[in-house]
Inverse folding.
């Protein structure tokens, strides 16, 4: 307890808490201002006997429609610059810190190693969970250790113990954890609620320590600016989107007979962009209900205003089938569905 008991609200609209603007109503909702409040929020959520689900920036999520029988716990970002501590070439910061604030802080202190992460939306915690990366760098590169809460106690995990995989980690894949099981699932028919939801793995990121490289401040600032410019063209600000919808495809996991479909124009360093396949099955400009795929990028789904979870799922399944039938490649969602 920290003197400010967390408050539980009922029947809260989910859409405004995601960049995609999709989702129904959360039966219970708790907004917390600091990671310190997470244990208390989880205790309160457990009393409601609804699965709890922690979100932060909401930039990688697709929620189900209708009334979701969950307790949604939102970790709110602090005011810029707070909760980031720089000592020499080490930075400690809370999970709720906006990733861009961390990057700016590193650059301002002439520390290199995360400048190409500039412009990735969301928080440091969300980035660790999903192993976020862009333009040659990824969040684990300079990560030293992570403070986690396992539902009972806090403990530090080394980078190795976080078991990072491409766009995933021990935090996103409960099966990576020994002896673990997804906490619980509530469903459907209970009390007339229509949607089935499973809790996220009950291992939460509270804080992280990064060890960066000494660098040239001007060069780092320039790189960061360049990346933001590229991204602003790729993801025009203000559009409702979760960013890339499908993960890029790992070449060493592709079926042998599909390798003939690899792009030959340049080296993709072990991963083929999902758009390479999507563009060739006519994804660009496709529509389903309120969802439109960008006409310049086949892996970029946009909510035109009234899209539903059903629209997203129908389109995603259609795209996966088209790519599988033509190239033998199984696309996998990068976004996380919070519904079934
Ligand atoms: C326009 C756009 C561009 C994007 N570009 C990129 C890109 O270039 N590279 C990239 O990797 N991603 C990209 N993304 C995806 C997204 O920004 C990242 O996945 C981001 O790191 C998610 O952070 P978040 O705080 O929004 O997490 P959320 O979306 O809120 O949550 C994501 C997952 O993390 C879990 N989670 C969040 N915080 C915690 C915590 N503290 N403890 C435990 N679990 C937690 C949630 O339960 C959920 O399962 C993009 C998204 C958008 C909208």
């Amino acid at each position: 307890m920290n003197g400010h008991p967390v408050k539980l609200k009922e029947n809260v609209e989910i859409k405004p808490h995601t960049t995609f603007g999709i989702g129904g109503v959360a039966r219970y909702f708790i907004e917390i201002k600091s990671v310190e409040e997470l244990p208390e929020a989880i205790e309160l959520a457990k009393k409601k006997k609804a699965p709890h689900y922690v979100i932060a920036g909401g930039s990688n999520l697709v929620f189900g429609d209708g009334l979701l029988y969950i307790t949604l716990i939102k970790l709110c970002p602090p005011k810029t610059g707070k909760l980031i501590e720089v000592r020499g070439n080490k930075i400690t910061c809370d999970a709720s810190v906006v990733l861009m604030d961390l990057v700016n802080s590193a650059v301002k202190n002439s520390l290199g190693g995360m400048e190409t992460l500039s412009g990735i939306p969301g928080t440091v915690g969300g980035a660790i969970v999903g192993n976020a990366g862009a333009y040659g760098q990824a969040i684990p590169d300079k990560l030293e250790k992570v403070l986690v809460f396992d539902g009972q106690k806090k403990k530090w995990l080394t980078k190795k113990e976080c078991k990072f995989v491409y766009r995933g980690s021990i935090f996103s894949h409960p099966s990576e954890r020994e002896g673990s099981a997804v906490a619980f699932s509530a469903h459907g028919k209970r009390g007339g609620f229509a949607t089935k939801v499973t809790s996220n793995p009950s291992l939460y990121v509270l804080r992280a320590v990064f060890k960066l490289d000494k660098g040239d401040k001007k060069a780092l600032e320039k790189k960061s600016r360049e990346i933001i410019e590229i991204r602003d063209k790729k993801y025009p600000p203000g559009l409702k989107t979760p960013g890339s919808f499908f993960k890029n495809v790992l070449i060493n996991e592709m079926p042998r007979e599909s390798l003939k479909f690899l792009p030959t124009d340049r080296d993709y360093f072990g991963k083929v962009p999902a758009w390479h396949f999507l563009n060739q099955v006519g994804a660009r400009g496709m529509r389903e209900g309120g969802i439109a795929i960008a006409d310049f990028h086949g892996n970029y789904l946009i909510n035109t205003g009234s899209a539903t979870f059903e629209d997203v799922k129908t389109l995603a399944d259609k795209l996966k089938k088209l790519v599988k039938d033509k190239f033998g490649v199984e696309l996998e969602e990068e976004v996380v569905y919070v519904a079934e």
Notes: The helical segments are 38-47, 99-108, 124-129, 217-234, 274-280, 309-327. Residues 19, 54-61, 75, 95, 120-123, 125-127, 129-130, 132-134, 171, 200, 204-205, 235, 241-243, 336 surround flavin-adenine dinucleotide (CB under 6 Å).
